[in-house]
Amino acid sequence: MPTLLALDASSSACSAALLRRREGLDDELISRFALTPREHTRRLLPIVDEVLAEAGLPASALDAVAYGRGPGSFTGLRIAAGVAQGLAFGLDRPLVGVSTLEALALGAHRRHHYRWLITALDARMGEIYVAAWQCHEGRLMALTEEVVMPPERLSLPAGHDDHDWIGIGSGWTLWHQMPADVQAGMGLCLTEPEADAADMALLAMRELEAGRGQPAHLAQPVYLRDRVAWQKSR
């Protein structure tokens, strides 16, 4: 049964999680999460070591490594990608990149059972990273592509404007700049949640079991700066 380590440094938080499938038993999920602004370089590897120590496993027991590929802090994304790539390359294990926007959505769905979510992160420079999701029984379906845009251009996903939407992430601190119809369509906005490696581990395990792990040298942060259109996913 596979064992996977996920790590993230895409925001002001730093986290790591180990997910182990166990035959005939519930999955084991061990995680650490800490708010560590500007300390990711110093804190990420010790957090990884703590998770492995609690699991009682050496790094060589891992079957794959996952990381928060973005969008998010450019520096944090590079740190996480570099650490994950180094681990995967040294162990000769596959690597799985996980969307921070998707991880935010899964975390909100797991903890609060929200079904219709728009995850948004403050991208600075007057823009947000954003995507919309439909969630059901632990599964997420993307309703839009992940894009970067000014908050003034945000709209509710086509054909879904009658749902009670929940906004998750730091991008909702720019609420006052969003169109009136978006504000009217939001039932609740939570600006505090950060992406968590525990949610990334769950998403990455699905990718790994579907055979979508990648060679370590293909690790690549996703910045989204070249994606500027809000389009319905096909």
Task: Explain briefly what this protein structure is.
The chain contains 5 helices and 11 strands; from the N terminus they run E-E-E-H-E-H-E-H-E-E-E-E-E-H-E-H. The protein is an alpha/beta fold.
Give the low-pLDDT segments: none
The overall pLDDT, averaged over residues, is 94
Per DSSP, the total helix count is: 5
SSE class: alpha/beta
Distance between the termini: 33 Å
Beta-strand fraction estimate: 25-35%
The shape, in one word, is: globular
Rg, nearest Å? 17 Å
What proportion of the residues is helical, as a percent range? 25-40%
Helices and strands, in order, run as EEEHEHEHEEEEEHEH
Number of strands: 11
What does the main sheet amount to? 6 strands, mixed
Explain how this protein is built.
The chain is of the alpha/beta class. The longest helix has 18 residues. The radius of gyration is 17 Å and the shape is globular. The two termini are 33 Å apart. Helix content is 28%, strand content 29%. Strands 6, 7, 8, 9, 10 and 11 form a 6-stranded mixed beta sheet that branches. The protein has a 5-stranded mixed beta sheet with strand order 3-2-1-4-5, with helices on both faces.
Any key phrases for this structure?
six-stranded mixed beta sheet; 11 strands; 234 residues; 5 helices
Question: How is this fold's topology laid out?
Answer:
Elements: E1 3-8, E2 13-20, E3 28-35, H1 40-55, E4 64-70, H2 74-91, E5 95-99, H3 100-112, E6 116-124, E7 127-136, E8 139-142, E9 147-149, E10 165-168, H4 180-185, E11 186-190, H5 197-209
Parallel strand pairs: 1-4, 4-5, 6-10, 10-11
Antiparallel strand pairs: 1-2, 2-3, 6-7, 7-8, 7-9
